[in-house]
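Researcher: Sequence of Cytochrome c oxidase accessory protein CcoG follows. Predict its structure.
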Amino acid sequence: MSESLKKIPIKVEGAGQDNETVSLYESHQKIYVRAAKGMFNNLRILFVLGTQLVYLGLPWLQWNGRQAVLFDLADRKFYLFGLTIWPQDFVYLAALLMCCAFGLFTWTTIAGRLWCGYSCPQTVYTEIMLWIEQWVEGDRNKRIKLDAAPMSLRKFRLKTAKHFIMIVFSLWTGFTLVGYFTPMRSLVAALPTFGYGPWETFWMFFYGGFTYLFAGFMREQVCKYMCPYARFQSVMFDADTLIISYDEARGEPRGARKKGSDPKEQGLGSCINCSICVQVCPVGIDIRNGLQYECIGCAACIDACDEVMDKMGYPRGLIRYTTENALEGKYPEKEIASRLKRPRVVLYILVLSAVIIAAVTSLAMRKPFKVDILRDRASLVRETDEGWLENTYIIKIINTTERPQQFRITAEGLPDIKVKTETPLVAIPAAATDSATVHVEADPQYATKGSHPIRFIVESAGDPSLRVEEKSSFIGE
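Model: Prediction complete. Tokens:
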């Protein structure tokens, strides 16, 4: 255990032994991450910029005169570009969550924690905070010296500037989050007077505050101790999962040597024991000790090691993406792709495909309107002047499209059944809900005492093929 652990005295009894202090809990030590350069670092930058472009930019897009992506909780409508999701459509939310879950399981089984290393919000925001630190305070060595130095005007100025930029960025993320639930243009218009409601204010500072806390201070502690994914990932790993590994057979024994020297003549492996792979690791682990649950798969150690190998004139790949079986020589690394056909991967892909196909098919067959039938409880049945029996219903129609629609209402189930509405066609505005009072009349000789099943047919006036049938009942006398 490290020397930075809290010491809890525990007596260990034994002949000729003194009381011994055993370390149980690790105290936090700040990790000074060294900047890495290389292909994987460029890929990580691309993902950071891409995810933030989507997250920060979506609320500003407009679609049909409204915000393109808006979760309108007050009106219980979710807008996703041209698609409007109503409370009755929340089965699609369940399908989306299932797709995310099985997609994560599938990807983890194939390639480990690439989600953590490249796209996880904690990783993305931590990376941005590290960029801010490096821009304001300098590289790793300068940051170490600055923190070790006594407080001065320069140190105070740099620390204040760094945290000010971090706080501004964090509040920006919180402001954007609220923009997904309250129209962004309304938020911007209210900014000069800060005329926000209590919930809007709460979520701005709540999300922004935790962004600042998690990415600015806790960083790797969130990944190591708070994130459950790190704990159950081992269930989805197997010997054919692509992971970041150190080639111990090639690298050991470690040792320093002069550039250009032959390591075999000195009885050494390719690892020069420079520890740069540890310095660039955002969670502070040594990949040379084997796979550890703290590893987030960011591949910073691969870029760093490859750079060192280039300088030494050695082949790249001492640290690389590979599988446990390939590293042990059970099959060549060129056969890694063929191992995707193993049962676990196939099962995950089949389940994921089934959920996606079912959701897409259901969405494609989704009617552009929904119908709900409510009986008027105040008057179950009455007799008209013509001697017919009449039931009254409230038909609620939801127009799920972005254009106004008109509907025709008819009924079936009893001979000569009649439907009377205030207007021949019921008009519903775009993406709106409205109700129509419908009077249904039936001949008493057919509508005898008791309940009789009937069907309401609601069809679009513009396209009669678009129709919805809803079951109900007619009360006779």
